[in-house]
Design a protein that fits this description.
263 residues, alpha/beta, Fructose-1,6-Bisphosphatase, Chain A, domain 1, D-Maltodextrin-Binding Protein, domain 2, 2 domains, 5-stranded mixed sheet
Length: 263
């Protein structure tokens, strides 16, 4: 296989998984129209159809990705948020790191697009190919893209952060004179920087490799800077797949953001 084949496979799998998830959500909610109407007052932690749909989406997307990777890349290892990690991946040169449904709390809400599918390939600890599908926006971002960092047209930079990890973003905002907004899904936030909707994504807490790997490799392909909050490169396929802090930044803001966080 050629490297191009891995880029295309990541993009195809992310797109197909997103389509599967949209079809599942529409089918389930159409069976209970009262549940669809209830999302005008959406409860993130609701039970009933809502809780069941989160679980069904996670499982259906995971099973699809595992089946396709087993068929198309039988010699590669896979680390999935929804799978059992037997650590055999630690002896593999090539490891697919996937989050079948990133932002599962937002997924059941038909009015929300803040969920994504992450598919990335890591070779010897380094992400080399990947894709992030944002099905609610009908977008697939991948390492097939050319760098697209254009000058921002905003009067003030915009930083995105998670709803529960906003302190680090506010520290950077105070340094560079930025606004801060929150939303779900690491992939959605990182791709907002890729698309130019935002200028930085700053996550000040712990996260897992499947949260950051595909967003990182796609953002790098788009010409953005990606690191932990100390400005260091992130290693993947570690024994325990956690990372401490994550930042995606337009290059002109990176140095000031890292200095602010270091102080």
């Amino acid at each position: 296989m050629t490297p191009d084949e891995d880029h295309h496979l990541a993009s195809d799998l992310a797109r197909q998984t997103g389509e599967l998830l949209l079809e599942l959500r529409n089918r389930v909610l159409d069976q209970d129209d009262s549940e669809r109407r209830a999302y005008d007052g959406y409860d993130y932690w609701g039970g009933g159809v809502t809780g069941s749909l989160r679980w069904e989406g996670d499982q259906a997307a995971h099973e699809f990705l595992m089946k396709e990777l087993s068929r198309l890349r039988p010699d590669d290892a896979v680390l999935s948020e929804e799978g059992r990690d037997d650590r055999s991946r630690l002896n593999a040169d090539r490891v697919w790191i996937v989050d079948p449904l990133d932002g599962s709390n937002d997924y059941p809400n038909p009015n929300s697009s803040e969920w994504a599918v992450h598919v990335a390939l890591v070779v010897d600890g380094e992400p080399v190919a990947g894709a992030v599908s944002v099905p609610g926006q009908n977008q697939v971002y991948s390492t097939l893209m050319s760098p697209t960092t254009r000058p921002t047209a905003r009067d003030k930079p915009l930083i995105l952060s998670g709803r529960s990890a906003v302190r680090a973003a506010r520290i950077v905002a105070a340094e560079i004179g930025a606004d801060v907004a929150t939303c779900g899904s690491a992939g959605v936030k990182a791709m907002a920087v890729v698309s130019g909707v935002a200028d930085l994504y700053v996550h000040g807490g712990w996260m897992y490799e499947w949260d950051s790997c595909a967003p990182e490799v796609v953002a790098r392909a788009a010409g953005l800077d990606v690191s932990n909050l100390a400005g260091e490169r992130i290693e993947y396929n570690k024994s325990y797949p956690e990372i401490a802090g994550f930042m995606v930044s337009r290059p002109e803001f990176t140095e000031a953001a890292i200095e602010a966080l270091g102080s």
